Amino acid sequence: MKIIVVGAGIGGTSAGIALQRLGHEVVIYDRMRENRPVGAALSLWSNGVKVLNWLGLSREVAALGGRMETMSYRDGADGETWCRFPLDPVASATGQRPYPVARADLQELLMRTFGTERIHLGKEVVGLEDDGERVTAHFADGTSDIGDLLLGADGARSLTRDWVNQGGAPIERSYCGYTNYNGLVPADARIGPLTEWTTYVGEGKRCAVMPVAGDRFYFWFDVPQPAGLPYDRTEGKQPLLEAFDGWDAPGVRTLLEAIDPASSLNRVEIWDIDPFHTWVRGRVAILGDAAHNTSPDIGQGACSALEDAFALGILFATNTEGVEDTLLRYQAVRSERAGDLVLRARRRGDETHAFDPAVTQAWYDSLRTQDGAGIIRGIVGNIAGSPVNLGGGVLISSALGGGVDARDGC
């Protein structure tokens, strides 16, 4: 069977690898002209890592991942540590250590594993046709390709999603109320311990670092502000210096000084999409951000795309009633859980960004007495329902207090 994948991101390439290993002919098209991932790095929680393990990449991913032993929250004003606790209970409960990874490193690994000779860049899809037996993708350069099915992993502004949703209510993106700045800097213990996820908070803003391979920190700043504010790259980090003026925590000041806008600084307005459950039309289906565009507030965006790839692989390996039937089963397996993660991330973002100052202040107050158990419960709660767990959920440890949920998050 020939499968066309539109989009060479995390979801598209991982789905391509899974289906290729089942013996299908898979080809990937992407409108980008070179591999330039959006965002510096990402959180691979245990569910995402397990999918990559399943794809045969366990050693490679472990080598790319940062060693993250502990987590802490600190006061952005003066650097006082409010709470600090180990992350071992996440691995104990789920069976897999999480890894922060540089997005470009993971993207390069997935593209190389799939086969770069079967990835065609600079190919923008402008139209689709499905005659009930074959799907045709038409490209902006006047060429086309025909396959037995097509998977749209073409991102938050997906053309494939619009085609699948034809005749349905418009699917609109919603602004989450804040802008994220992110990048990579050399790891520096003055910012935070080299094996710790360190987060500074205050005024509804966040500044955090995670370790990734290559003795680097992945950093990000969240700034609540209206959408559409003008920004020119020549401004560099000036908006960050202004937004975090008055944050005198030594780690924050050291991080701001270390950022080199010419080498690594991205500015991204954060948007998401209300959950919806029409992911399939005939022989065409969507995955990744095209299906469940989410904010990064619980770190499950890439993991959810990897879960899509896992579900597609398992379903095409085990169901034989036809392409349309299998794609509908994929939709049934994935849309509810993926939508739930979007809403969990949205609630978490509302809590942490002072859209209701009293709610965020209550969160700050709770961090000062936090032993980590509630936060671990939230992280594990996001992982427990993953299809990669094969219904096994998690093994409850005493550190989880006897149960998991997603009320605390990360």
UniProtKB/TrEMBL annotation:
Listed SUPFAM superfamilies: FAD/NAD(P)-binding domain
Known cofactor(s): FAD
Gene Ontology terms for molecular function: FAD binding; FAD-dependent urate hydroxylase activity; urate oxidase activity
Domain FAD-binding: 2-342
PANTHER family, per the entry: MONOOXYGENASE, PUTATIVE (AFU_ORTHOLOGUE AFUA_6G14510)-RELATED
Superkingdom of origin: Bacteria
InterPro entries xrefs: FAD-bd (IPR002938), FAD-dep_Monooxygenase_BioMet (IPR050493), FAD/NAD-bd_sf (IPR036188), HpxO (IPR047712)
Gene Ontology BP annotations: purine nucleobase metabolic process; urate catabolic process
Transmembrane segments: none
EC number of the protein: 1.14.13.113
UniProt lineage: Bacteria, Bacillati, Actinomycetota, Actinomycetes, Micrococcales
Protein's name in the database: FAD-dependent urate hydroxylase
Reactions that this protein is recorded to catalyse: urate + NADH + O2 + H(+) = 5-hydroxyisourate + NAD(+) + H2O
Pathway(s) served: Purine metabolism; urate degradation
Enzyme class: oxidoreductase
Pfam family, one: FAD_binding_3
Source organism of this protein record: Serinibacter arcticus
Keywords: FAD, Flavoprotein, Monooxygenase, NAD, Oxidoreductase, Purine metabolism
Signal peptide positions (record): none
Protein family: Belongs to the FAD-dependent urate hydroxylase family.
